[in-house]
Amino acid sequence: MPPVDTVPAVRCHGPGDVRVEHLPVRRPGPAEVALAPLAVGVCGTDGHIVGGSFPAARPVVLGHEICARVVETGADVDALAPGDLVTVEPHDYCTACAYCRLGQEHLCDGKRGYGVRLDGGMTERMVVPARIAYRLPPGTPPWIGALTEPLACCLHGMDQLAPRSGLPVLIYGAGPAGAMMVALSRTRGLGPIVVLDPRPDRRELALRMGADAAFDPGDEASGPAARALTDGLGFPHVIDAVGSARVLESALTMASRGGRILVFGVARPEDEARVRPNEVFARELTIVGAVINPYTHHRAVGMLPALGLDRLRPAFFPLDKVPDALDAQHVGQTDKVFIAPHGVAAAGR
Ligand SMILES: [Zn+2]
Ligand SMILES: [Zn+2]
Fold first, then answer.
1. DSSP code of 153?
2. 349 confidence band (pLDDT: 50, 70, 90)
3. Which tens digits make up the pLDDT trace of 297-319?
4. pLDDT-based confidence at 333, cuts 50/70/90?
5. Sheet holding 169-172, edge to edge
6. Is 90 exceeded by the pLDDT of residue 112?
7. 235 to 123, 239, 260, 292, 308: CA distances (angstroms)
8. 41 CA to middle of ligand 1, Å?
9. How far is the centre of ligand 2, averaged over its atoms, from the C-alpha of 96 (Å)?
10. Nearest ligand, measured from the Cα of 65
């Protein structure tokens, strides 16, 4: 039996080396809160960290898409109370670099993510600064609450894309993020919303989330069929929710004149795409990136009830089954995988 002043946590020690370990419990400092994570989303980044292709601290407790119950508050914390349901904005910034001082903290030189460089939420208990815990409406299913973080990233992506209502959008990839982009596109009044994904289950998910059409990019007819939905003009808005050089190259051909292309998916650092500068010039294309969630977490909490995210089909795994959860997220028997540190019932289903 472990001593009572420890809790189990899922730590990654290196490529493929994930262990459940008992770590000491810490009391919250004056401006901190202690949380009991109820649902923690498994994201592609977790797979990259475990696979060794994403820079992270070793060892580190995994998990950055966190919904939790407040269990203890520090002496100076007035805004939260034990029992509150919260979601965590999982970043810490240096506050002193040029970007921090320009209000662009997400571009900070010394940015540290929870579950990446700081210990994350795949544990029975964690302590974070109260200022990064955002209260959720009572009754929010914790697994929906855990979607606040990826939704906040999608919102920043939409801000960068700055779409004009009433015009089409093409979305590459209908994983959980692509699916949320579909739902956001609907609320923004974009249409038709067209999705490309090689997996039939993900095309079905895209349609379930409100896409007007979904095609298999491996099918040669998919490009012309998608373009036909824009009167042959191409798409004024294109979202890469995959992260690959091939997708960017394809996006350039599918964009309309004046089109805006959002690079939202995480490509491998070494990937290179072929871009013809003359095409960017002559067709007046814009390529924009979007990284993490600067000041969009608050807005994401506000939008959560309106997006119909309960159309996603969740699956839940206990702390000691994280490798199985990563596999499940990868092969896609389900739309979105969550770790439930306090059991499936506490995660909301
Ligand atoms: Zn993530
Ligand atoms: Zn900074």
1. H
2. low
3. 999 999 999 999 999 999 999 99
4. confident
5. 213-215, 193-196, 169-172, 235-240, 255-263, 286-289
6. yes
7. 43, 10, 8, 25, 25
8. 8
9. 5
10. 1
Ligand 2 centroid–CA 110 distance in Å is 5
In terms of C-beta density within 10 A (0-12 exposed, 13-18 middle, 19 or more buried), how is residue 256 classed? buried
Superfamily for domain range 153-289: NAD(P)-binding Rossmann-like Domain (3.40.50.720)
Instruction: Enumerate the domain spans of the chain.
Output: 6-147+312-347, 153-289
Note the ligand closest to the C-alpha atom of 176: 1
CATH topology of domain 6-147+312-347: Quinone Oxidoreductase; Chain A, domain 1 (3.90.180)
pLDDT top residue among 247 and 44: 247
CA–CA dist 130, 209 (Å, integer): 33
Q: Which ligand is nearest to the CA of 150?
A: 1
pTM of the model: 0.96
Residue 201 has pLDDT above 60, yes or no: yes
Question: Which residue carries 């292309």 as its tokens?
Answer: 261
